[in-house]
Amino acid sequence: MLRSLQTSATGMEAQQQLIDTLSNNIANVNTNGFKRGRVHFNDLLYQNLRAPGLSSANGTVAPTGVQIGNGVRLASIEKSFEEGSVKITKNDTDLMIKGRGFFRIQMPDGTLSYTRDGAFKRAPDGRLVTSEGLPLVPEIVIPQNALRVQIGLDGVVSASIPGENEPRNIGQVQISNFINPAGLNSIGRNLYTSSPASGEPIVSTPGENGTGALGQGELESSNVNIVEEMVTMITGQRAYELNSKVIKTGDEMLATTNQMR
């Protein structure tokens, strides 16, 4: 009887973790480049009262066994890196990676982080930076008197300067790719850092080595599907309620046992 209480308790905890993940997904539905989390569960160890395949007394092999489960646990919360929808902004410094890859961002301590959020701004010194002022790597500096900035599909950046007939080449946007993007470490602020699970970053020109091309004046929206999240939330809520009812039923059965004379 106590096993059912403990098993249902693991089920309630698992569904709570599912709802926590869904709430984070829904909260970031309008976050540029946000990647939704997907929850995966594992069943716990089983108590083997009789293993499958044991020989019976008459020499036959039992086709099934007697195995009693002990509940569920959270196995992983995986980031889904499916591409989000395109949001047209017509802003010269807004970039979108149409395919695989991440922009490289320099952190205050000099280390690198990675993002899918291409909503870059022009700093007072002309550098392209994130909304928090973190510079893009490699550094792109836009001249103060530039009339227009053009960024090609391959990441080549050029600026139209007064008095110059041809646009001036001012830099090259590079992006990084990973063998296992789901292994990246999320640190918030739309940023990721590499980990042993993600592998080392592979730096490429946009459109090469399996990376996506760049789109100027566009941003990648969140890949959260509200309808799918709501359906999963309802399923999780009902599973939570069912587990709580199992605990209530187990409690009533224990009370009945205690009242026996």
Question: In words, what does this structure look like?
Answer:
- This protein has 261 residues and is α+β, with helices and mostly antiparallel strands.
- It has two domains: 2-48 and 68-80 and 224-258, no CATH class; 86-220, no CATH class.
- It has two helices and 20 strands.
- It has helices spanning 2-27, 226-258; strands spanning 37-43, 47-50, 66-68, 72-79, 86-88, 95-98, 102-106, 112-115, 121-122, 128-129, 136-137, 148-151, 156-160, 168-172, 175-177, 185-188, 191-193, 202-204, 213-216, 218-220.
- The strands form eight sheets. Strands 7, 8, 11, 15 and 18 form a five-stranded antiparallel beta sheet that branches.
- Strand 9 and strand 10 (128-129) form a beta hairpin.
- Helix 1 packs antiparallel against helix 2 (226-258).
- 22% of the residues are buried.
SSE layout and pairing:
Elements: H1 2-27, E1 37-43, E2 47-50, E3 66-68, E4 72-79, E5 86-88, E6 95-98, E7 102-106, E8 112-115, E9 121-122, E10 128-129, E11 136-137, E12 148-151, E13 156-160, E14 168-172, E15 175-177, E16 185-188, E17 191-193, E18 202-204, E19 213-216, E20 218-220, H2 226-258
Antiparallel strand pairs: 1-4, 2-3, 5-20, 6-19, 7-8, 7-11, 7-15, 9-10, 12-13, 13-14, 15-18, 16-17
